[in-house]
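Board notes, transcribed. Complex of a protein with FE2/S2 (inorganic) cluster.
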Amino acid sequence: MSRWLHDELRIGEEVEIEAPNGTFIFSGKEANSVVLIGGGVGITPMMSAARYLTETGWSGKVHLILGFRAPRDFIFREELAELEALNANLSITVAMSRPGGEPGHGTVGHIDAALLASAVPDIASQRAHICGPPPMMDAVKAALVGLGVPEIQIKTEAFGTIKRDPTAKGTASTAVLGRVLFQASDTTAPVPVGATILDAADEAGVFIDNACRSGTCGSCRVKLVSGSVRMAVEDSLTEADKAEGYILACQAQIGSDVTVEA
Ligand code: FES
């Protein structure tokens, strides 16, 4: 959103602001060590975790693995050197995909299975957090799974999302898989093939809060009253959420009729 703030927002315009959402957090309580993987500007949430774990003197090992195109893209370089000097548990690995002739350091290439395995010898037992462009996250997640990291131990935060205009009408298909009853709104809507419950809500004029539309922020959390859904991504649901029947409307695809609380 920073680009929009700089380029579009004008003095005098009003914006509505919400507190941050999501569960992409590592405070040191979630595991005894962690692998933090950032691609480009996806380094930003990793810096928050690295700073916090350093400031609090966390005793676990922190493997920070970063990918940039070239040395000039390596942001936070000086601060990372300071954190490394302060925190003996912090190890930093950097890969540059197109370093060119620029002076800088790091392995040449992308963050792949070989780099991950050499940077973190016991990687299969680690918890990993990934943030970066979606193709980078998909590739790194696949590499981690290939190295034996259980999917439940891999947390992702989308950087750059597919955002649908909530006022836009028109869905991908006219074939309908079932209908969704929005209980609180007393509205029923069809859910076409390829559409989610959030798409159906948009079409029907039912408001369900949303932001990332990629399953990572948790804004679109709604309670499923009846029926079942499939979700490609459910990273922002906690185990307690799942036990209580919450789903992510932006990810939920149905096979037959369902009811939700919205
Ligand atoms: S809108 Fe972010 S998880 Fe659904």
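Residues 210-213, 215-220, 236, 248, 250 surround FE2/S2 (inorganic) cluster (CB under 6 Å). The first strand starts at residue 33 and ends at 39.
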